[in-house]
Design goal:
Largest sheet: 5 strands, mixed
Main location: membrane
Organism: Methylorubrum podarium
Number of domains: 2
Distance between the termini: 24 Å
Oligomer: single chain
Strand order of the largest sheet: 2-1-3-11-4
Structural class: alpha/beta
Keywords: Cell inner membrane, Cell membrane, Membrane, Transport
CATH class of the largest domain: Alpha Beta
Subcellular location: Endomembrane system
Number of helices: 17
Pfam family, one: NMT1_2
Length: about 350
Amino acid sequence: MRIRLGYVPLTDAAPVIAAAELGFARAEGLEVTLSREPSWATLRDRLALGHLDAAHMLGPLAIASALGLSGPQAALSVPMALGLNGNAMTVSNALWAAMAPESDGLDHVAAAFARVAHGRAEEGRPLTIGTVHPFSSHSIQLRLLARRGGLDLDAAIRLVVVPPPDTVDALRRGRIDGVCVGAPWNSVAVAAGLGRIAALGCEIAPDCPEKVLAVPAEGAEFTAPLVRAVHRAGLWCADPANRDALSTLLAERAELASDAALIARTLSGALIVDADGTERVNPAYLRLDGATHRPNPDHARWLVAQMIACGQVAPGGDAADRAAALYRPDLFAAAIGG
């Protein structure tokens, strides 16, 4: 059976890339063609219109697409989660210098960011901060960080959408003052001397729901074998013994970054956060382990609660229940045998 599977180039696409490239899918009777998509909006539309059979997808975007809140409405289900965490906020060198927080502690960073943002807004030249899509955990984490510092993000910040692969160039050109994006693009920006990793997403929202495997809700005969293949590939990806091989695969086949060692750091959580080579280690930075694969309806409910808090979803409706119904732990259990 042949299927076309879309992904956006990020480290957490590793399970679907490994499933297609390392024989896990073929062992399940699937011939998977990977489709590298330039943006989440493109991936969303191609999945909804049937140009893709399945996708590595932002959890909030899968919900928004299914609820008709973003792009063409699509009947989707989520039979598997792909991981937790993986994001960070990177700011330009100029913004970091202006912030000059007392320490790397999240409260100090949030307060310093709020102080500069308030000052720039009062001067009539608000900070421009990038996020990868309005319906994303990245947007949620930016709002949580702003709230921690007492900042009204909508009132003080110009928030713009920048696809993950374009974030480094946007920083280089001065189009944005900072960005919340997934690995490896924060590390690529630091390696290029363009910015400083100011905050890790896993510290803003621990074990934050991230990417999911999204498939059509009905009639997808490939769902069970695809879940088995991606689950087994995910277990392989999470094994530290395979880190070098996986990093090389992502660098060469998925075109994430030219430096496989940089990708390996994002997999281990040992990040270089500035041009001086300062290392920050957090093993929870990106979780691809098997414990993250079962889709959790409570994650969908939490995401909808965050969407309500930022005005994307009207309160009082059934959006949380409808979102939770998309996440199908029963399909995951049936596919992997319990």
